[in-house]
Design a protein that fits this description.
The chain has helices spanning about 25-40, 45-75, 80, 90-100, 110-120, 125-135, 140-150, 150-175, 210-245, 250-255, 260-270, 280-290, 295-305, 310-320, 320-345. By secondary structure, it is mainly alpha-helical. InterPro entries: DUF318, UPF0718.
Length: about 350
């Protein structure tokens, strides 16, 4: 699931009130250096230089991610994802877990997509595989994680997304066969949300430049997502600069350092309620790992935080009953802990 708007309810770029810019990350990005210049002028240059340097080093990743997601949206790639749920259940689970990180959905579009799958009788096991995998990774998140933490973390999170999706899908299949989840949907299923046609319909047009409307969509997505990523990454690196400057390394190492199971479990449990935008978390974790956070704890935090994202949980809660929602959370936390343990062992 592409979650370029996971930290806001509206699509990126839909700002109509000029004053609404005050409610964006840019307010913090501007305010923090001003406050530092007043309260701690000696560290002003170091903090601003750190944040600016980190942001500039990420620009190539941002550019590639923005172009890629604009192309997927203009082509209508969502339709290809929908077909992954057709056919045999085992095949649907595998494809749903694999495609979960590729679907170019915003937070409002994933709900009618899943609603459409429920309406046509797609297996809950495959839907759960998609639900678990989709918040964890997408093309922009992969590149931004690589830029902030390195490719081992980016690849590790992508593998974790597929692994958790597969494990969750087959776990739900087993539970369903055992008699659970007989009443899945929460009320009547609708396939629309006011965002336009359901992404479950239609066929992708990969050579989108042959159609004027798709070219317009590409341009709009390019501008909106570039602005959206820029503001969140600017905030991320400002916060990382503050973290590295003011938080003692000994404190971080004491809480989530070392190679034991404890730091991994703590990070997973803290990561769930302390959800951070997928574009903010890697930069902050980069600072934490420099100060002693173990690789396994960092991975557990990344995974747990993504599963607990507001759009991801809202999509599950709005469509299915409490037992399915509780299963989603339990699988997410367990998957985060297991991912942290495996990543710690591999690294």
């Amino acid at each position: 699931m592409t979650t370029l708007d996971t930290a806001q309810e509206a699509r990126p770029g839909r700002t109509t009130n000029p004053l609404s810019v005050l409610a964006t990350p840019w307010t913090v990005v501007v305010a923090v250096p001003l406050i530092i210049s007043i309260l701690d002028p000696e560290r002003f240059e170091a903090i601003v230089g750190f944040a600016a340097g980190a942001f500039l080093s990420t620009l190539p990743y941002i550019a590639f991610a923005v172009i890629l997601i604009a192309w997927l949206k203009a082509a209508g790639a969502e339709a290809s994802i929908g077909r992954a749920f057709e056919g045999r259940e085992n095949r649907a689970i595998v494809l749903a877990a694999l495609f979960g990180g590729l679907a170019p959905f915003c937070s409002c579009e994933v709900i009618p997509f899943i609603a459409g799958l429920l309406a046509v009788g797609a297996p809950l096991s495959a839907i759960m595989a998609f639900w678990l995998a989709s918040p964890l990774i997408d093309p922009p998140t992969l590149l931004i994680t690589a830029a902030a933490l390195g490719w081992p973390y980016a690849i590790g999170k992508a593998v974790a997304a597929v692994g958790i999706g597969l494990a969750g899908g087959y776990a739900v299949k087993a539970l369903t066969a055992g008699g659970l989840f007989k009443d899945v949907a929460r009320g009547a299923i609708k396939r629309g949300c006011g965002c336009g046609p359901s992404p479950f319909d239609g066929r992708p047009v990969w050579r989108f430049w042959a159609e004027g409307q798709r070219i317009d969509n590409f341009s709009a997505e390019l501008r909106a997502n570039a602005a959206f990523l820029a503001q969140w990454l600017a905030l991320a690196y400002v916060l990382e600069a503050l973290l590295v400057t003011y938080v003692p390394a000994s404190l971080i190492a004491g809480l989530v350092g070392g190679e034991g199971l404890g730091p991994i479990v703590i990070s997973a449990l803290v990561g769930m309620p302390a959800y951070l935008n997928s574009y903010v978390a890697p930069a902050l974790l980069a600072g934490l790992t420099e100060q002693g956070m173990s690789p396994g704890a960092a991975m557990a935090f990344l995974v747990a935080g993504a599963v607990s994202s507001i759009p991801a949980m809202a999509a599950v809660w709005s469509l299915v009953r409490a037992p399915v929602f509780a299963t989603y959370i339990a699988l997410g936390v367990t998957g985060a802990i297991v991912s942290g343990i495996v990543f710690q062992m591999v690294v």
